[in-house]
Amino acid sequence: MCILFFFGPQSTSEPSSHSLSHQPHLVSSPQLPSTPPQYPQLLPHTVSSTPPASPKLYCPLHPQHYRTSKRKRVRPGKNVKRWELKKKTALQPFQATSTDPSQEQEDEKGISSTHSATQSNNNNTNNNQKEKIFVYLVPPSHQFDPKPSEAITTQQTLQLYQHFTHGTCVAAPRGEPPFCKVKYVPFDTMSAEELQGWEKLVCHFFDRTNYVAAVKNNGPQVDGSMWADGWRKGSKKESFGRYCSVGKLVKMMLLANYNPQDEAASIKEASDFISIQLQHLAPGVFEKYRETLIENNLPSMSHMEYPLPYDALDFASFLTFTMFDFHNGPHCDTDANHWTLVCWIPIFNPRNCSEDDPILADDDFDMLGGQFTFRDFQVCLDLNHVLGVALCVFRSRDYTHQTLPGASPSGKYTRIGFSGQMSEAMSNAVVAHINGTAPFLEVAGQEKQVSNAQKKL
C-alpha cells in the first residue's frame, strides 16, 4: 500500500510575517485512506519553511518489517546450523581419520540424527545407506549425579535418566566431546553367518573358563563372575604373561582335551571377530586402540608368545568377560586405553539350560535390570528392550560408570558382557623388559605355560 503526497498551488490563506508566496502546502487526496494508527508518523506536524526540491513518493513498509521487539534479530537457520555443528563434533571421535577429501565428504553425508533424518521404507535402499544416529547432547542441568549417596543406583532414580533402548545412539555433554556410543543389533536382523559368529564367540568364552580362573580381586565388583584372558603383568615381580591357571591346564591335559595349535587358532578367531565389530562400530576408536598397543609395544591378546609382529586386526592386550548377574560399584578405569569397547550378549544360562536349548537367548528372554549407567550425566543403557547384541565404546578413564544388578526370574537366562583393555601396569612391565631394567624378568607365553603344566603331570 502506497500513500502519495503531492504539492498543490499556493494557499490563499492570510500570510504570516514570512513570505510564503512560493511555499507549497500539503494537500491530501480524499480518495486515499488515512494513515493506519500502527504506522509511525511519516511527516512532522509542522511544515518546514524550506520548500522541498521536488515532489517525493513515500512508500511505508509492510507492518511485519517494523521491529516489534527490542531483542536482537535472529538470522534464519542459525540454530539449525549450530546444532548440526554440535552433532558433528559429537560424532567426530568415532570416525576414521582419512586423508582423502572425497572420502571425508562421503563420511559427512552419512552423518544424521533422528532430529533431521527420515528412514526409507525400502529395505534394499537401507542396506546401502549410512546408519541413522541419535545424538543426545546432555544439557548442563543433567550433568551431575542426582543420588551420589546410592552405591547401587535404584530403579526409581533411573527414572530421572535418559534411557537408550534401541538403534545407534551417541551421548555428549552439550558443546563438548562425546563420552559414549552404543549400537543395538537385534538377532532377527542378523544373517545366518553373523548369528553363527556370535554363537562361536560365546562358546569360546565358555571354553576359556576351562583354562583361566575367575578373577578374585576386582575392586569395583560386587557380585557375579568375571574372567580375564590375554596378557597381564605378574603380581609379584616385573614379569608378564598370558592368563592361565596351571592347575586347570593340567586337568585338560589329563583329559586329552588340550591342543596348543587348536587353542591358538580359537583365540585368534575370537580376537579377530571382536576387532571387526569394533571397526564397524567406531573405526576412530579402533585406531586409538591400535595406537596405544603399538606405541607401547604391548602384546596383542591374539599373540601366544612375545614379541610377535602385529597384523591389521590386533587392537588390545586382554579382555575380561562376565556372567551370572555381574554388577559393580561406580568407578573409573585406570587402563592405558582411554576408550573401552564393551559388549553384552543375552544367552541361555549354562548352569541351568538343557542340551536342547540354543546358545543365544530366544523370545522368552526375561532378564530384568542389568543397566549400564553414566551417573555424572544421568544416562542409562537399557539392555532389555532389544533381543540382541549391544555394542558400546565409552571413555572409561574419564567418567564414572557402573553395571547394575540384573536377574532372570525364570533362571533360564543370563548375559555375557566382555570388554577389551590394555593394562597400565602391563605397559610398565613391557618398558622394563625392553630397556632391560628389570632383573630376573620372565615372559610367560603359551610354551612356558605348557612346560610348567607338564612338570605337574
Automatic annotation (TrEMBL):
Compositionally biased spans, kind Basic residues: 64-80
Region of interest: Disordered:
12-128
Tet-like 2OG-Fe(II) oxygenase domain boundaries: 193-405
Where in the sequence does UniProt note compositional bias of the Polar residues kind? 92-102, 111-120
The lineage's top-level taxon is Eukaryota
**Which segments show compositional bias classed as Low complexity?**
12-30
Report the protein name in the record.
Leucine-zipper-like transcriptional regulator 1
